[in-house]
Amino acid sequence: MSFDTLGLHDSLLKALAETGYTEPTTVQAQAIPAALAGGDLMVSSSTGSGKTASFVLPALMRVLAARAAAPLPGPQSDSARPDRRRPAHGRGDGGPRAGAPGAGAGPRILVLVPTRELAIQVAQATASYGRHVRGLRVATIVGGVPYGAQLQALRGPLDVLIATPGRLIDHMASGRARLDQVELLVLDEADRMLDMGFIEPIQHIAAATPATRQTVMFSATFAGFVGRLAGDLLKSPQRIDVASHTEAHADIEQRLHWVDDRDHKNAILDHILTERSVEQAVVFTSTQRDADWLADRLADMGHHVASLHGGHPQGRRNRVLQGLRNRQLRILVATDVAARGIDVPTISHVINYGLPMKEEDYVHRIGRTGRAGRSGLAVTLAERRDSGMVHRIQRYTTQRIPAATIAGLEPKVAEARTGPRPGIRPGARPGGPRGRTGGRPGFGHRPQRP
Ligand code: AMP
Predict the structure, then answer these.
(1) Which of 79, 187, 230, 403 minimizes the number of CB atoms within 10 Å of its CB?
(2) Is residue 39 classed exposed, middle or buried when 0-12, 13-18 and 19+ CB atoms within 10 A define those classes?
(3) To test the ligand 1 pocket, which listed residue (126, 398, 443, 445) has its Cβ within 8 A of the most ligand atoms?
(4) Which residue's C-alpha comes closest to atom 8 of ligand 1?
(5) Domain 252-424 in this protein, CATH class
(6) Where are the domains of the chain?
(7) Residues 6+ apart with CB under 8 A from 233
(8) What residues line ligand 1, using a CB cutoff of 6 Å?
């Protein structure tokens, strides 16, 4: 999937390409077209999933639409214009902005965020994706900083205002913040904002924006108060839930072993399979041939093993699954299709001997372990040529798979020990019981709520 298919303006596609993004993340692929369609959205997506771009890009599309309807005068940049208070553009619906003095200054887009740090990140993302939007006017309004520059920014005109609720309420009380031009209201990390006691400020702020606005709400959960707030603020919202691939694996520890070649891979596999902690294991291969070959090899070594793939008749497949359930088999060597839906709680290990063709399959694979309240270990054996797929899996799950080594079986290539650069900021933490520190998994590491 590429960004080209999402309906974004060329200037945004250009900025994305310059940023180095080649394809949208899952939340982007789902939320961007939905937001562009204009309806309200409830999106469950964790930090690090790429959610910022999923609302910033549709927000910038509104700015671009307004520019097309009423271009900025002259070739000069916006900041060079002498009269910054002059209404710069018509409304997105083509109607004129209200004529009162100072009107027309207010932002079209209002993004509410829980913290100053997040406000800064959203502002940076907006500036980055909007670098080719001429004269883009973005301001942040956050607590803990002097009022002066904020007052100046609020005089407008403004395209995008990114604010924490408390300080924005202060500016509204003094009549400095005008929200009657808001077309799109975004609530980012709504659950955290409510945890911080912002429910009333949010309701007050939303009430100051036009009832015709579009509202997009992001939250890790929509249970309890967040769901109620969504009920108050959103009109027939579409629900987008991409949290499931990223967060459903709390009981599964994931590890990544970089291997030099097939011999090295076999040596690591043999080592793992002789560990006493392996109650039962499913070893995944990329092809049916590999499944048969590997099952034969492991049988020769004395393991109780069978292969399972779509090339076998159903009767045999049923017998193999029965053997796994009644524990006559300790190891199953399987392909993706054949292993879908296997639910055997005693599977303690999933081993990716060959990587899946699709990142979704990784999630299905590792979900064969860690079932029924037990913990499981999912080990991926990857050669250098698999690094692209490892990267895609990490982006899809928004989790880094921690690299591991076995003493005496370390990869020879030093570079491989640390793995490829998956485009993830340092500080991302793995999921899984042993690797978790209680926070949400993600590309980025942000302060967690208390
Ligand atoms: P977010 O969840 O919005 O905080 O994004 C997490 C990180 O992923 C940020 O560092 C973004 O720059 C990065 N990111 C967002 N979208 C993409 C994409 N389509 N491809 C690669 N990286 C991305």
Answers:
(1) 79
(2) middle
(3) 443
(4) 50
(5) alpha beta
(6) 3-241, 252-424
(7) 185, 187, 202, 203, 206, 215, 217
(8) 21, 24-25, 28, 47-53, 423, 425, 443-444
Q: Do domains 3-241 and 252-424 have the same CATH topology?
A: yes
In tens, the pLDDT along 183-233 reads 999 999 898 898 888 999 999 999 999 999 999 999 877 877 889 999 999
Q: Report CA(165)–ligand 1 centroid distance (Å).
A: 24
- Contact partners, residue 287, CB within 8 Å, separation at least 6: 335, 354
The domain at 3-241 falls in which architecture? 3-Layer(aba) Sandwich (3.40)
Burial-class residue 235 by CB neighbours within 10 Å (0-12, 13-18, 19+).
Answer: exposed
Residue with CA nearest ligand 1 atom 16: 50
- Nearest-Å Rg of the Cα atoms of the chain is 26
What type of residue sits at position 24? P
Whole-number Å distance between alpha carbons of 422 and 407:
25
Question: If you take atom 5 of ligand 1, which residue's CA is the nearest one?
Answer: 50
> In this predicted model, what pLDDT tens digit does every residue of 292-304 receive, in sequence order?
999 999 999 999 9
Distance 131 CA to ligand 1 centre (A): 17
Q: Atom 22 (ligand 1): residue with closest C-alpha?
A: 21
Q: How many A from CA of 79 to the centre of ligand 1?
A: 29
Residue 163: pLDDT band with limits 50, 70, 90? very high
Q: Is the pTM of this model over 0.85?
A: no
- Cβ contact 226:195 at 8 Å: no
For residue 395, how far is its CA from the centre of ligand 1 (angstroms)?
A: 9
Cα(139) to centroid(ligand 1), Å: 21
Centroid of ligand 1 to alpha carbon of 423 (angstroms) = 8
Atom of ligand 1 nearest to the CA of 45: 2
Q: Is 302 left (phi over 0), alpha (psi -120 to 50) or beta?
A: left
Burial zone of 314 (CB within 10 Å; 0-12 exposed, 13-18 middle, 19+ buried): exposed
**Cα dist from 392 to 7, 21, 337, 398, 440, whole Å:** 23, 12, 20, 9, 19
**Residues whose CB falls within 8 Å of the CB of residue 300, separated by 6 or more in sequence, listed in order:** none
Distance CA 306, CA 412 (A): 32
Ligand 1, atom nearest to 19 Cα: 12
CA-CA distance, 316 to 197, in Å (whole number)?
Answer: 59
